[in-house]
Amino acid sequence: MTVPVLSVRNLEVEFITRRSTLRAINGVSFDIAKGEVLGVVGESGAGKSVTGLAVIGLIDPPGRISGGEIYLSGTRIDHLPPEEIRRIRGKRIGMIFQDPLTSLNPLYRIGDQIVETIRTHMNLSETAARKRAIDLLAEVGIPAPDKRIDAYPHEFSGGMRQRVVIALAICAEPELIIADEPTTALDVSVQAQIISLIKRLGRDHGTAVMLVTHDMGVIAETSDRVAVMYSGRIAEIGPVQDVVQNPLHPYARGLMGAIPTLAGEDKRLVQIPGSMPRLSAIPPGCSFNPRCAFAFDRCRVDRPEPLKHGSQAVACHLFDTAPHEAAKETAA
Amino acid sequence: MLAFTLRRAIQAIGVMIAVGVIAFSMFRFAGDPVNQIVSLDTPAAEREAVRKSLGLDDPVPVQFARYFANAAQFKFGVSYQFRQPVSNLLMERMPATLELAACATVLAMVFGILMGVYSALRRDTILTKFFQAVSLIGISLPTFLIGILLIYLFSVTLGWLPSFGRGDVVRIGWWTTGLLTLSGLKALIMPSITLGLFQMTLIMRLVRAEMLEVLRTDYIRFARARGLTTRAIHFGHALKNTLVPVITVAGLQFGSVIAFAIITETVFQWPGMGLLFVQAVQNVDIPIMAAYLLMVSLIFVTINLVVDILYTVVDPRLRSTIRRPA
User: Which residue from B229, B244, B315 is facing A120, i.e. has the nearest CB?
Assistant: First the structure.
């Protein structure tokens, strides 16, 4: 088996506040292979975006990576000095943020911003970089790129701006793209275009994609695998078909149950009672236990670790079959 | 763009007419001008002759139209105390004030921006805390006190710098400059600091606040995610965005620097328009006061116009909204 493009092991991210230290990410591990799209879903505050920022080294104080390792194509990158991680950002890892309207500097022409990024990472002349910028704009589907390259960000629509942002993210042929809610700020018809663009770029260039979103529809359309995050941990991870059709973790089941179907009769959608705990008040044991219909004694004491279950891995005591068979019976 | 400039210019003329009304009404409300000219025992018939010869018996609108038409040609009448045309007096004094104001503004801009950027980027260093303390002093101490303290320290105690006057000046055409002689430069130092300190602290605080704001924006985060160097992010992307509002404030401040030069000029006996104005107030020399009012507002209005145009040069978003008005 080849080395995965991105490999995250037991990642922990802490935010130091005046009162206490809050752990936003608590032991997250996952791999993304070349050309693979990993969807990361979860509620707001589950740690999806922070995971993405940790990978690219943009966690700002008072936050810090307090444990675990991050490998990019086999090289450890989480402990690099700022200048070296800076060279990786944009060159080997590209990032796309949520809001295309505010991601571009309003005072510079988009061409200047692309050329600047290209020349930071590649040894190209001004003219060569400009030519490459025009090619990139064409690739992401900007019409008349040789004219539009001299336009300012405010002269583009939201969808077009997100295409420019994507062009910026891929301009140095990165191995990995982290897309942090790339379609949330866009309207539905544009969403589909952007999603298929990201998917196509990943396929054409063999780029690994980490797609952070809370939109299950987007995940189902694009991803090869999906990780469901809850309260700074991965609750369940596996191939997208399996997780969507047959979710194991009670939280994942709740999430999938909350998706309306087209064929749907007028049934009430399933709702998970309660809300995610605040970082300062994470319950002992499984952090989902206060909201879980199947919680039993062990869930309130013991923190479940992700265990392999078929093609999926799930962090839930219900699926820890070996020594606690009896516990499962009491669950219902 | 041309339509925009033209529209703004017309607005500026409107403002100037309004100021002209106020300046003109000073003549009418500060007593009968004839009394200012004639002596106490002048017979009434002679007074009427003076009134008639000066056109003061015409209807008020006619008088105003005449005054404004003359003012537009920089003719402000004759000073009561100096018996000279006011425009000559102002022209004579203007270079001193403009040099002082320009020097103070350059000082304020350069140090204000440098200190502001530094204290935004290095938030917790001792130097930043020092700058913050200095800015607090600069913003809270009154100008005349700073001037007097400087005089006490550098003129009285150390004897390094002259405590008053402009030093030797060189005449270039009608303009007199103190920038070309050593004594002129030495004389310029303390008044410039006194006049510029408040502006400097203002600009420093503004730059710092704006810069911190800009550094939090998404496009700076995205610039970092693109792997740009810290230098390119701070000085290419952040600073340019910071300067957009700074231009407005600094521009408008240049106007108030000229206006507030009155105090600094008084403290340092600087032979500029401000000092002339203070003398005019003491002697109820209304032609000078009215002319000064008009000059200062003309400068303000001009600066406003320039700032508006400069704005569009820096910010492309404004350019397109101006080109295609909604």
Answer: B229
Contact A106 B224 (CB under 8 A): no
Structure tokens at B290: 């009215």
CB contact set of A142 (below 8 Å; sequence gap of 6+): A148, A160, A163, A164, A167
Pairwise CB contact (< 8 Å): B227 & A117 = yes
The predicted pLDDT at position B320 comes to 61
Token pair for residue A277?
């705990």
Question: Taking 50 as the threshold, does the pLDDT of residue B325 lie above it?
Answer: no
* CATH 3.40.50.300 boundaries in chain A: 6-92+172-259+268-331
Give the three-state DSSP class for A276. coil
* Residue-wise pLDDT tens digits, A25-57: 888 889 998 888 999 988 888 888 889 889 988
Asked if A315 and A305 count as a contact pair (C-beta separation under 8 A), the reply is yes
* Tally of domains within chain B: 1
B157: CATH? 1.10.3720.10
Neighbours of A30 (CB within 10 A): 21
Rounded Cα distance between A235 and A30, Å, is 12
Amino acid of residue A44:
S
- Chain A residue numbers touching B317 (CB-CB < 8 A): 106, 152, 154
Average pLDDT of the segment spanning B82-107: 86
Query: Domain range spanning residue B267?
Result: 90-272
Query: Quick count: other Cβ atoms within 10 Å of Cβ B316?
Result: 17
Nearest chain A residue to B214 by CA distance is A105
Q: Which residue of A has its CA nearest to B238?
A: A105
CB-based contacts of A114, cutoff 8 Å, min separation 6: A129, A133, A136, A137, A149, A164, A167, A168, A171
Instruction: Report yes or no on B156 lying in a domain.
Output: yes
Q: How far apart are CA A70 and CA A88, in angstroms?
A: 13
- CB-based contact, B216 to chain A, within 8 Å: no
Determine whether the interchain pair A155/B320 forms a contact, defined as Cβ–Cβ distance below 8 Å: yes
Would you call B320 and A97 a contact, using CB atoms and an 8 Å cutoff?
A: no
Q: Which residues of A touch B244 (CB under 8 A)?
A: 107
| For range B161-176, the mean pLDDT | 78
Does residue B47 belong to any structural domain of this protein?
A: no
In a domain, B37, yes or no: no
Residue of A nearest to B218 (CA): A103
Does the domain at A6-92+172-259+268-331 match CATH 1.10.760.10? Answer given as no
What tokens were used for A280?
A: 């300062």
pLDDT digits (tens, 9 = 90+) for B197-239: 888 898 999 999 999 988 888 889 888 888 888 888 888 888 8
Residue B176 lies in a domain: yes
Cα–Cα distance for residue pair A60/A78, rounded to 1 Å: 14
Q: Does B217 touch chain A (CB under 8 A)?
A: yes
Mutation target for A interface from B210, B212, B219, B244: give the one with most A CBs within 10 A: B219
User: Which stretches of chain A score pLDDT less than 70?
Assistant: 1, 263-267, 321-332
Return d(Cα B247, Cα B238) in angstroms, integer: 15
Q: Are A172 and A91 in contact (CB under 8 A)?
A: yes
Please give, rounded to a whole number of angstroms, the shortest distance from the CA of B99 to a CA of chain A: 33
Nearest by CB to residue B227, choosing from A91, A99, A109, is: A91
The burial class, CB within 10 Å (0-12 / 13-18 / 19+), for B91 is middle
